[in-house]
Write a structure and sequence with these properties.
By secondary structure, the chain is mostly helical. The chain has a domain of 276 residues. The chain has 20 helices and two strands. A two-stranded antiparallel sheet has the order 1-2. Strand 1 and strand 2 form a beta hairpin. Helix 3 packs parallel to helix 9, helix 10 packs antiparallel against helix 11 and helix 10 runs parallel beside helix 12. The protein is globular. 47% of the residues are buried.
Length: 413
């Protein structure tokens, strides 16, 4: 038999099958990143195509038409990335802080967008690239950190859970979620490897990205004292509050006041009240109870600029998210070193300290995205009970739904 005939008798593997086989051999963090971002891209594009049906929503939240300037194709591709607070970050990157209220958006992310955007010629492209790169690295570091603390199986589940979380489209949007995640996880991972100088620097950058970064002082401080006691190298952790203090000093120098970012939260634009976590929980329970009664006379699904559901439904959903976070926090204290639980508790307190009038837990579901010890604990719990697949399928479905809604300019967290 000729060589040609022998070759013809061997079935060739289709290119798609080869790609899928190669993807199956890729590390879990990479698989989680690629699959989840593809889902977000497709769901966002589908949502963007319905925007002309809701044209009245667009001008009110993008008065400068920053997203519209992307063009018809560009806006479809970037629909899951450029909505709501994205506009504020882009405006800050382009024009700096123009009012005291604008200082609620911390500086590191828009600064990076400005620097990279100058080179790329597109602030939107820079923001998306920063978020995607930060997410990819964050998933890798989170996998390594979780493997150190809880083992390989828990690490695999943790990164899949986080990548396909119902609101994880924020990790590839022009928002601070992925940048804060990579800095906070990177800080703790550096500490676990004994690189305390790097841990302090990354923690300081995290505190210049979101106020919750200050909680890393507690986490890393407890880790350091347990491992090495108290010595001169502990001073490196002072870099964490320095990141926040540097920003507050900047706002003071601009004439907005040393506490401008906190005062801005209570402005007429954002309606936050410094009531404390206990009052927030009490108000949230009352809002959910009122919402449950309202459901008897209101439809569950009410798509509008305020979101896909009626406010009464949102109150119930947000309280459920808080309850799940609290249960997971208990599990984190049981399965992880106490430093992780204390950090998670501190961040939860910060996230619930200033309720919004009318919706006490507004945006809490988004804030909880970056509390990585809770995801580590959830990953351990699910991996031990082998309930991963159904949870991931439901979560991916919810991710597609919320991404679609976000792309239509509906308010999502």
């Amino acid at each position: 038999m000729s060589a040609t005939a022998g070759t013809a008798g061997v079935a060739r593997t289709p290119p798609l099958a080869r790609v899928l086989a190669a993807a199956g051999r890729a590390p879990v963090p990479l698989r989680a990143f690629l699959a989840s971002r593809l889902l977000v891209l497709c769901a966002g594009a589908a949502g963007a195509m319905t925007v002309p049906l809701r044209t009245g929503w667009w001008p009110s939240d993008d008065p400068l038409r920053l997203s519209e300037r992307l063009g018809s194709v560009g806006n479809v591709l970037a629909a899951s990335a450029v909505r709501w607070d994205s506009i504020h970050y882009l405006q800050t990157a382009q024009h700096g802080y123009t009012s005291a209220a604008s200082t609620v958006f911390y500086p590191l992310y828009p600064l990076l967008v400005r620097v990279l955007g100058t080179g790329l010629g597109s602030d939107v492209g820079a923001g998306v690239l920063i978020s995607l790169a930060a997410l990819a690295v964050a998933l890798i570091l989170l996998h390594r950190l979780t493997e150190l603390e809880l083992g390989r199986r828990a690490a695999d589940v943790t990164v899949m859970l986080l990548a396909f979380a119902p609101l994880s489209f924020y990790f590839s949007a022009v928002y601070t979620e992925s940048l804060y995640l990579v800095l906070s996880v990177g800080s703790v991972y550096a500490a676990r490897r004994g690189r305390w100088r790097l841990a302090g620097i990354l923690g300081g950058l995290a505190a210049a990205t979101r106020v919750t970064g200050i909680g890393l002082v507690l986490l890393l401080g407890l880790m350091y004292v347990k491992e090495r006691g108290v010595d001169r190298h502990l001073a490196w952790l002072a870099a964490i509050p320095a990141g926040l203090l540097a920003y507050l000093g900047f706002t003071a120098a601009k004439g907005y006041g040393f506490t401008a970012p906190f005062a801005g939260e209570g402005s007429a634009q954002y309606h936050h009240q410094m009531a404390g976590s206990l009052q927030t929980v009490v108000s949230a329970v009352r809002a959910a109870a009122s919402g449950a009664r309202a459901l008897l006379s209101q439809p569950l699904y009410q798509p509008s600029l305020g979101g896909p559901f009626a406010p009464s439904t949102d109150s119930i959903l947000l309280l459920v998210v808080l309850a799940v976070a609290i249960v997971t926090l208990v599990w984190a204290f049981r399965r992880l070193p106490i430093a992780y639980g204390m950090y998670s508790l501190a961040v939860l307190l910060v996230c619930t300290w200033s309720p919004v009038d009318g919706q006490p837990l507004k945006s809490f579901d988004r804030y909880a995205l970056t509390i990585f010890p809770l995801w580590m604990a959830a990953g351990a719990w699910l991996s031990e009970r082998r309930r991963v697949r159904p949870v991931l399928l439901v979560s991916a479905g919810l991710l597609a739904f919320w991404t679609f809604q976000f792309a239509t300019w509906a308010w999502v967290a």
